[in-house]
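Q: I'm writing up a methods section and want to include an example of the input and output format. Could you take the sequence below and give the corresponding predicted structure tokens, formatted cleanly so I can copy it straight into the document?
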Amino acid sequence: MERSMKTLMKMGLSTALVLALGACATSSPDVIQRGDAQRMSQVQDGVLLSIRTVTVDGSQSGIGAAVGGVTGAVAGASRGAGGGESQVIGLLVGVAGAVAGNTIERMATREEANELLIQLKGGERRAIVQAKGSETLVPGDSVIIVTTGGKVRVTKAPK
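A: Here is the clean output for your methods example:
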């Protein structure tokens, strides 16, 4: 019993670590990925037409479900009286753990963001969603759209 409790604690710690690392991922315009440093970027000038708050749904990589399922199965199997009963309890608690792990991962990686509608100098419009950054943008601001390796971020245009 003590051995399965240690295993359960290790798996719980693993779940917490995976979810904490997942929560570190961001789409903030203030955070530049290492692979995007020292790369040439395309810049477009525009004017911010509107801004609205949106929520970017969290990720569901399957890691939370897998870790939650294994943790639940180990905990459930150690609770039964032995034989088939332990296996059934382990299976049921494992499924519940997988659902809980998936939900925790999704909620931990959800973030508030802004949807920006921008009018480019040539008259075209672009809609871009990015996490809220340290800069306050308001309609009418002159902005630049910086595109690097397929990723886009919006910031105020230099004066």
